[in-house]
Amino acid sequence: MESLKAVFEKLELEMHHFEKFNDEVQFKILKKKEYLIQEGAVCDFIGIVNYGKLRSYVQNDGAEYNNDFYLENSFVTAYTSYLTQSPTNCNIEALAETEIQYITLKQFNRLIEEDLAFLKLAKYISDIFFIRKCRRETSFLKNSAAERLELLYKTYPGIEQQVSQYHIASYLGIKPESLSRIKLLTYINK
Protein backbone atom coordinates (compact mmCIF):
# COMPACT_ATOMS: atom_id res chain seq x y z
CA MET A 1 0.00 0.00 0.00
CA GLU A 2 2.85 2.40 0.78
CA SER A 3 4.32 2.10 -2.72
CA LEU A 4 1.13 3.41 -4.31
CA LYS A 5 0.97 6.20 -1.74
CA ALA A 6 4.57 7.13 -2.63
CA VAL A 7 3.55 7.46 -6.30
CA PHE A 8 0.78 9.88 -5.37
CA GLU A 9 3.23 11.91 -3.28
CA LYS A 10 5.79 11.94 -6.09
CA LEU A 11 3.13 13.26 -8.48
CA GLU A 12 2.14 15.88 -5.90
CA LEU A 13 -1.41 14.62 -5.78
CA GLU A 14 -3.29 15.34 -2.58
CA MET A 15 -4.21 12.81 0.10
CA HIS A 16 -7.89 12.92 -0.90
CA HIS A 17 -6.83 11.73 -4.40
CA PHE A 18 -5.03 8.78 -2.88
CA GLU A 19 -8.01 7.96 -0.66
CA LYS A 20 -10.46 8.23 -3.55
CA PHE A 21 -8.26 6.00 -5.72
CA ASN A 22 -7.71 3.57 -2.86
CA ASP A 23 -11.48 3.24 -2.35
CA GLU A 24 -11.70 1.81 -5.89
CA VAL A 25 -8.76 -0.60 -5.60
CA GLN A 26 -9.35 -4.34 -5.45
CA PHE A 27 -6.90 -7.05 -4.40
CA LYS A 28 -6.02 -10.33 -6.04
CA ILE A 29 -3.68 -13.09 -4.87
CA LEU A 30 -2.22 -15.39 -7.49
CA LYS A 31 -0.60 -18.74 -6.79
CA LYS A 32 2.65 -19.65 -8.48
CA LYS A 33 2.04 -20.44 -12.19
CA GLU A 34 -1.44 -18.85 -12.07
CA TYR A 35 -2.24 -16.38 -14.82
CA LEU A 36 -3.19 -12.77 -14.27
CA ILE A 37 -4.22 -12.61 -17.93
CA GLN A 38 -3.88 -14.95 -20.88
CA GLU A 39 -3.50 -14.44 -24.62
CA GLY A 40 -6.82 -13.65 -26.26
CA ALA A 41 -8.38 -11.93 -23.23
CA VAL A 42 -9.02 -8.20 -23.09
CA CYS A 43 -7.13 -6.44 -20.31
CA ASP A 44 -9.35 -4.05 -18.37
CA PHE A 45 -7.12 -3.28 -15.37
CA ILE A 46 -3.91 -1.69 -14.19
CA GLY A 47 -2.35 -3.17 -11.07
CA ILE A 48 0.62 -2.72 -8.81
CA VAL A 49 2.52 -5.66 -7.34
CA ASN A 50 2.41 -5.63 -3.54
CA TYR A 51 4.57 -8.72 -3.26
CA GLY A 52 5.67 -11.52 -5.53
CA LYS A 53 6.78 -11.52 -9.14
CA LEU A 54 5.26 -12.10 -12.54
CA ARG A 55 6.51 -12.53 -16.08
CA SER A 56 4.92 -11.52 -19.34
CA TYR A 57 5.55 -13.74 -22.33
CA VAL A 58 4.36 -14.40 -25.85
CA GLN A 59 4.15 -17.77 -27.55
CA ASN A 60 5.27 -18.59 -31.07
CA ASP A 61 5.44 -22.06 -32.58
CA GLY A 62 5.14 -23.62 -29.13
CA ALA A 63 8.05 -21.65 -27.66
CA GLU A 64 7.72 -18.99 -24.95
CA TYR A 65 9.54 -15.66 -25.12
CA ASN A 66 9.61 -13.47 -22.03
CA ASN A 67 9.07 -9.80 -22.78
CA ASP A 68 8.67 -8.24 -19.34
CA PHE A 69 8.87 -8.81 -15.60
CA TYR A 70 6.80 -7.27 -12.83
CA LEU A 71 8.45 -7.22 -9.43
CA GLU A 72 7.36 -5.74 -6.12
CA ASN A 73 6.07 -2.15 -6.38
CA SER A 74 5.86 -2.17 -10.18
CA PHE A 75 2.77 -1.52 -12.28
CA VAL A 76 1.40 -4.52 -14.16
CA THR A 77 -0.99 -4.69 -17.10
CA ALA A 78 -1.17 -5.85 -20.70
CA TYR A 79 -0.95 -2.20 -21.67
CA THR A 80 -1.68 -2.33 -25.41
CA SER A 81 -4.78 -4.40 -24.73
CA TYR A 82 -5.74 -2.05 -21.90
CA LEU A 83 -5.47 1.02 -24.15
CA THR A 84 -7.16 -0.47 -27.22
CA GLN A 85 -9.57 -2.82 -25.41
CA SER A 86 -8.62 -5.52 -27.90
CA PRO A 87 -7.38 -9.04 -27.10
CA THR A 88 -3.84 -9.28 -25.77
CA ASN A 89 -1.16 -11.36 -27.45
CA CYS A 90 0.69 -11.99 -24.18
CA ASN A 91 0.34 -14.01 -21.01
CA ILE A 92 1.15 -12.68 -17.55
CA GLU A 93 1.99 -15.49 -15.13
CA ALA A 94 2.93 -15.46 -11.46
CA LEU A 95 6.44 -16.82 -10.78
CA ALA A 96 5.65 -17.03 -7.05
CA GLU A 97 2.66 -16.27 -4.88
CA THR A 98 1.83 -12.70 -5.81
CA GLU A 99 -0.55 -10.08 -4.53
CA ILE A 100 -1.62 -7.21 -6.72
CA GLN A 101 -3.93 -4.31 -6.10
CA TYR A 102 -5.69 -3.15 -9.21
CA ILE A 103 -8.24 -0.76 -10.63
CA THR A 104 -10.38 -1.39 -13.67
CA LEU A 105 -10.37 0.80 -16.74
CA LYS A 106 -13.99 1.78 -16.05
CA GLN A 107 -13.18 2.80 -12.46
CA PHE A 108 -10.05 4.72 -13.50
CA ASN A 109 -11.89 6.56 -16.29
CA ARG A 110 -14.65 7.52 -13.86
CA LEU A 111 -12.06 8.98 -11.46
CA ILE A 112 -10.51 10.97 -14.32
CA GLU A 113 -13.93 12.28 -15.38
CA GLU A 114 -14.59 13.41 -11.80
CA ASP A 115 -11.16 14.99 -11.29
CA LEU A 116 -8.64 15.65 -14.05
CA ALA A 117 -5.80 15.48 -11.49
CA PHE A 118 -5.95 11.70 -12.00
CA LEU A 119 -4.57 12.29 -15.50
CA LYS A 120 -1.19 12.84 -13.81
CA LEU A 121 -1.30 9.25 -12.59
CA ALA A 122 -2.46 7.96 -15.98
CA LYS A 123 0.40 9.79 -17.71
CA TYR A 124 2.92 8.52 -15.15
CA ILE A 125 1.86 4.91 -15.75
CA SER A 126 1.86 5.41 -19.52
CA ASP A 127 5.35 6.92 -19.40
CA ILE A 128 6.67 3.95 -17.40
CA PHE A 129 5.43 1.41 -19.95
CA PHE A 130 6.50 3.50 -22.94
CA ILE A 131 10.04 4.05 -21.65
CA ARG A 132 10.49 0.37 -20.74
CA LYS A 133 9.28 -0.72 -24.17
CA CYS A 134 11.54 1.75 -25.98
CA ARG A 135 14.62 0.78 -23.95
CA ARG A 136 14.05 -2.91 -24.56
CA GLU A 137 13.39 -2.44 -28.26
CA THR A 138 16.46 -0.24 -28.71
CA SER A 139 18.65 -2.63 -26.73
CA PHE A 140 17.80 -5.46 -29.15
CA LEU A 141 18.76 -3.26 -32.08
CA LYS A 142 21.95 -1.73 -30.66
CA ASN A 143 23.36 -3.79 -27.81
CA SER A 144 25.15 -7.07 -27.36
CA ALA A 145 23.66 -9.73 -25.09
CA ALA A 146 26.07 -8.66 -22.33
CA GLU A 147 24.91 -5.05 -22.65
CA ARG A 148 21.27 -6.18 -22.62
CA LEU A 149 21.99 -8.09 -19.41
CA GLU A 150 23.46 -4.96 -17.83
CA LEU A 151 20.38 -2.98 -18.83
CA LEU A 152 18.17 -5.70 -17.34
CA TYR A 153 20.02 -5.37 -14.01
CA LYS A 154 19.51 -1.59 -14.07
CA THR A 155 15.84 -1.85 -15.03
CA TYR A 156 15.03 -4.56 -12.48
CA PRO A 157 17.46 -4.26 -9.54
CA GLY A 158 17.92 -7.60 -7.78
CA ILE A 159 16.20 -9.60 -10.51
CA GLU A 160 19.00 -12.17 -10.63
CA GLN A 161 18.00 -13.31 -7.11
CA GLN A 162 14.29 -13.39 -7.92
CA VAL A 163 13.92 -14.88 -11.39
CA SER A 164 15.41 -18.07 -12.81
CA GLN A 165 18.29 -17.89 -15.27
CA TYR A 166 16.08 -19.63 -17.80
CA HIS A 167 13.55 -16.77 -17.74
CA ILE A 168 16.28 -14.11 -17.80
CA ALA A 169 17.90 -15.77 -20.83
CA SER A 170 14.55 -15.87 -22.61
CA TYR A 171 14.04 -12.15 -21.91
CA LEU A 172 17.49 -11.40 -23.34
CA GLY A 173 16.82 -13.49 -26.45
CA ILE A 174 19.62 -15.97 -25.74
CA LYS A 175 20.03 -19.56 -24.57
CA PRO A 176 20.65 -20.25 -20.85
CA GLU A 177 24.15 -21.58 -21.70
CA SER A 178 25.01 -18.26 -23.35
CA LEU A 179 23.81 -16.38 -20.27
CA SER A 180 26.11 -18.50 -18.09
CA ARG A 181 29.03 -17.75 -20.41
CA ILE A 182 28.30 -14.00 -20.40
CA LYS A 183 28.07 -13.92 -16.61
CA LEU A 184 31.34 -15.86 -16.29
CA LEU A 185 33.16 -13.54 -18.70
CA THR A 186 31.78 -10.48 -16.90
CA TYR A 187 32.94 -11.88 -13.56
CA ILE A 188 36.41 -12.67 -14.94
CA ASN A 189 36.79 -9.20 -16.47
CA LYS A 190 35.93 -7.39 -13.22
Automatic annotation (TrEMBL):
InterPro entries: cNMP-bd_dom, cNMP-bd_dom_sf, RmlC-like_jellyroll. SUPFAM superfamilies: cAMP-binding domain-like. Residues 13-112 form the Cyclic nucleotide-binding domain. Pfam families: cNMP_binding. This is Cyclic nucleotide-binding protein.
